[in-house]
Amino acid sequence: MATTAGLRPLPVSDEDIAAYRRDGAVLIRNLLSRDELALLEAGIEQGRKQPSAMYSRYQGASGSGETIIDQLPSKRSPMLHRLFEESPVAELAARMMGSPSAQLVLDQIFYKEAGEVVPTPWHQDTPFLNVRGNDLARIWLPCDPSPRDVAIQVVRGSHLWNVIYSTSTTTSTEPANVVKADEGDAFSYDGVGGDDLPAIPDIDNHSDSFEILSWDVEPGDAVVFHGNILHGARGKASHPQRRRALAALFGGPQLRYHHPAGHGMPLPGGESDRPIAEGAPIGDHPDVFPVIWRESGAA
Ligand SMILES: O=C(O)CCC(=O)C(=O)O
Questions:
Q1: Per-residue pLDDT tens for 75-126?
Q2: Residue 8 C-alpha to ligand 1 middle, in angstroms?
Q3: How far, in Å, CA of 70 to CA of 57, rounded?
Q4: pLDDT digits 0-9 by tens, 236-254
Q5: Are 149 and 217 in contact, with CB atoms under 8 Å apart?
Q6: Which CATH class name applies to 2-294?
Q7: Gyration radius (Cα) of the chain, Å
Q8: Residue 128 Cα to ligand 1 middle (Å)
Q9: Are 69 and 5 a contacting pair, CB within 8 Å?
């Protein structure tokens, strides 16, 4: 676990923190050093070559546009583990949340091959998760130049709407018709979350009603977005290079544990030996949600 001592100053201003809290997302330039970026890329590549049994593979209707999503790659990759321990990624999340520590809730690889890029449909992370609350920050780290037409985008301010939407997603952007090609034995998105939640608004067909924030993101930059915000990524008929990213989700100690209706996302520390009560602060369960960064002197 890292603390403030020994780490370089974060490239984050008070305006960045205010933007994160107001808009629900902010771009932080040059978060990672060259060495940290090398760890990120090597870790993502290792995850791609040796996927876990929790991977899901998607593609466009024509069979191109391959996308791999894998769960908790940092648990298997020493490089990604080092990235979390040695880089300012977790500290950045804590600063944005205003919390004295950052615990890992989930990390995932989003690996999109060059050529056709399939969209990531608009969704909220919240309904997929085993946690609820405000102290939930996602750090999206691409290792390829990711122009705004393939990078993460968010609906500005939607983290404050106080709605949890359904996990069912559709997309009206082109190229659409994203289909699941296959998945590993140990995890499926089918059955995650409940059926009783409201449908996600049709954002692309009512674009005048929503303010979309997007950025041209460079390797080493980070987009920090709130775990409750509506977000996704556009599709593109042809893109010259891969679009590889790691997304890490951190919670503050006051974030609450939630028993999901269906099955939940995998837990970073695995299932607990002792049952976790609904609503228990995750700060009481560092075995399941490991503390990655703690402010010096914080308990
Ligand atoms: O990288 C993408 O296309 C989607 C990422 C995403 O949905 C997330 O980080 O929660």
A1: 999 999 999 999 999 999 999 999 999 999 999 999 999 999 999 999 999 9
A2: 27
A3: 9
A4: 999 999 999 999 999 999 9
A5: no
A6: mainly beta
A7: 18
A8: 13
A9: no
The CA 99 to ligand 1 mean position distance, Å, reads: 24
Residue type, 79: M
Q: Using CB atoms within 10 Å of the CB of residue 1, give its burial: 0 to 12 exposed, 13 to 18 middle, 19+ buried.
A: middle
Is 194 strand, coil or helix?
Answer: coil
Pocket test for ligand 1, best of 56, 123, 128, 140 (most atoms within 8 A of CB): 140
- Sign for the pseudo-dihedral over CA of 223, 225, 227, 229: negative
CA gap 248, 172 in Å, rounded: 27
Which phi and psi (to 5°) does residue 79 adopt? -70, -45
Cα–Cα distance between 285 and 76 in angstroms, integer?
21
Ligand 1 atom at minimum distance from 142 CA: 1
Residue type, 78: P
Backbone angles phi, psi at 37, to 5 degrees: -65, -40
Q: Indicate the residue type of 236.
A: K
For the chain, give every domain's residue range.
Answer: 2-294
C-alpha 294: how far from its chain's center?
Answer: 20
Residue type, 134: N
Neighbouring CB atoms inside 10 A of 155's CB total 24
Of 3-7, 138-142, 158-162, the one with minimum mean pLDDT is 3-7
